[in-house]
Amino acid sequence: MATDCDYLIIGGGSSGAVVARRLAEKTTGRIILLEAGKSDEGDPAAVDLRRLDEQTADYDWGFRAAPLAGSPPLLNYARAKLLGGCANHNDCAFIRPPDSDFDLWEELGATGWNAAAMAPYWQRITDTITIETAPCHPASRRFIAAGLELGLDEVDFGREVRQGVGLFPLNAKGRTRQSSSVAYLHPIAALPRHLEVWTDCMASRLIIENGRAVGAETSRGEIRAARAVVLACGSIQTPQLMMVSGLGPAAHLTEHGIPVLRDLPHLGRHLRDHVAAPVVWETHEEVSGWEICPFEATMMLQLDKDAPAPDILFHFGLRVREKYDDARLATKGPAVKASPNVTRAVSEGSVRLSGPTMADKPVIDLNYFAEPADLDLLVKALKLTRRLGQTQAMAPLCREEVHPGPGVQTDEQWRQYIRSVCETVYHPCCTAAIGRVVTPELKVMGIDGLFIADASVFASLITVNINSAVMMVAERAADLIVNPRG
């Protein structure tokens, strides 16, 4: 027997939790929020920043991605599998996107998504969550001093995005994450009675009848929604769920024996992500003992002076996390790394099916450096990164550059190094973009009653870490679902 509701939200991550709470405030109909993973409430591994390493394999989907065209899927591509989503396993960097990001969205066809229109949604978020900077570790202070030594300003990135160096604003309250679940849903027992949170419940297929989304098949049976189905599964699994349900590129669906209900040729295409590559130094000084998270300091550079915003963003790490299976950045002792990423990388990858069900892991091709401009920009950034380690401020910390090492000198050597160790910053977006797959009201083109409210709808990659923009999209989505002109 089917369960009936008014609104069904699939995915309880950074966007889904926001949409659910705001819909509960705007409507009185029954709302069901589905999350395939466990609840984060009362789980210190999920909400305590210092206990991230206690998260086990069941907190993650275990996806792999191919970083380069034609390469095997060697890159661990973490996607959270719990209430609160990736905001419960990231490093909590939380910066307001510069106005130029949203203004570009409108130029690309996302009518009504300009910076002025989005400003109220940032205000709603900051009225709901706590944003702080972490206590600064001495090594992070050295990194900031190195930036000053190279002529940069110290910038409060909680107030502005421009070239400079400083600390990351964090969506955290002390050591406690301010993920969307913590800020919008906890305590779950105190939520409005018409909002139900179903954890450990996996959606396997959307139910489409006569061109309208009317529900989903799930691990707890069929759920039917009278008003709307909202997808908030993220930039990887939102396209996957749509494709296994018959929505997507017709030839690709046919290849997997899936009847085509709606040809959406752009679904799963145009995948964008922040690509990075590090310089790693073994250290003279102790770099443990950080208070909140190991990535406290950042630097933004505007290498292209005609760019509307910084084109490089750094994560300075007080430890080296290995993202490949084969320990490409291994060190013999304590180490730090500075990883610049291309903020508005233009190379596009894809998300495709490996089989006809949600149990078949998606094929993620990041296709980094398909556009040579991304690689050239990263070469320039890494040359400057090496200079950071040679400053008076950083020299007492940086005993030896171990990756790439002093043997890398020419531009071609830098390119080869970058291709071999390039990293994701885990910011996939644009796989169901506004103007290509959804309308500016976030309604899936050609299917009534189906909305998308996650990073897959981004019209382009944004300058900063994407979690803040994901929540802004979710805030606006709740308005648009209730009132398409909202």
UniProtKB/TrEMBL annotation:
Q: Which top-level group of life is the source organism from?
A: Bacteria
Query: Mind telling me which residue stretches traverse the membrane in this protein?
Result: none
Matching InterPro entries:
FAD/NAD-bd_sf, GMC_OxRdtase, GMC_OxRdtase_N, GMC_OxRtase_C
One Pfam family cited in the UniProt record for this chain: GMC_oxred_C
Pinpoint the Glucose-methanol-choline oxidoreductase N-terminal domain residues.
Answer: 234-248
Which Gene Ontology molecular function entries are recorded, alphabetically? flavin adenine dinucleotide binding; oxidoreductase activity, acting on CH-OH group of donors
Q: Which family does it belong to?
A: Belongs to the GMC oxidoreductase family.
Q: What is this protein called?
A: Choline oxidase
Source organism of this protein record: Aestuariivirga litoralis
